[in-house]
Amino acid sequence: MTQDGEPQVKRVKSSGDNEEQKPQKEEKNYDKELLEAAKANDFEKVKELVEKHDADTTHQEEETGASALMLASAHGNCEMIQFLLENHAVWNAVDRQHKCAGDYAVDGAHQPAIDKLLRHGVISEMLLGRAALNATKEDKQKKMDAQGFEDNHAYLRSKLKYDNNKVEGLLLDDKEDAVMMSWETKLMEEHARLICHNKGSVLNVGHGMGIVDGKIQANDPAHHTIIEAHPDVLKRLQETGWYDKPNVTILEGRWQDVIHKAGPFDGVFYDTYAEDDADLKEFHSHLPRILKENGVYSFYNGCCPDNLFFHGVACEVMKLELNDLGLSCEYTAMEVSVTDPEMWEKVRRRYWYRNTYYVPLCKKMEVLDCT
Question: Which segments cross the bilayer (predicted)?
């Protein structure tokens, strides 16, 4: 998985690659034998092929995209999985069906194998995250975010459209991707309930369609702060009377520019658009200051939505990063319904695939007095 949560796809070798290099033919045979040995659950043969013949542990079968690690995971063979990982097998490579080794273990209900692959994935992502923080300015090349904007400023310059299809209310960007949809109402209601735990002061970052802010108001908080930056959404806030609500303060601008004016709060919710993992981590760095001692934090948990195993790894990474900041993080499963094809009409790309959503609940950890 890349730093932005995207799975690493290993390019499957083509039969036309390096045709002039005759030794490749013998090496490819060893690679093929490695897949056959893993498929047969023959660990000794796998070891022999890798240690004696330098078989490529990253090789993937042409038709299916299966790797030796995926096949070992399908058997739940933890010894073989550990050996392959130690010999450079790619934990987050995906096959032609977009399934990774962890998915193969899940399909086989091999819990020890699932746990081993999950730990490896979490450690890998944590190390990559630390490396990114320490990268030089020259190493950090700017790239398009998941929504196709060069950066958040480009998104803020774009036009948004409030729309609907046969069954859904929609907020679409200028590429027809959904910024938000009304199917999220159920989960936003739960997020609002969590952060309004004591009906104190709450902060929501990202108004969007106003769903979560409406649910926050239904919980009757003492004070309600909204941070919003997009001009079209700010216009909508004006039109729908949010500026006139007596217990509401609206901070106009990017949260990066106005967060110093805010807090502390009893509850905080974060749900932005056209931002990446680095932005979320930066926001989290403010939580120790803006969250009261008994405060509650939650966020829209949309990491790696198209692969359950990658989503699980991302959730665990997030949990550990929040732990480093002195916050606990637990997830509760919630059932949602996103299977109706009509829901996704007018939306260019579907952004949620499963009927389960994991709601994060984060709290400041108790500081023990060891004196």
Answer: none
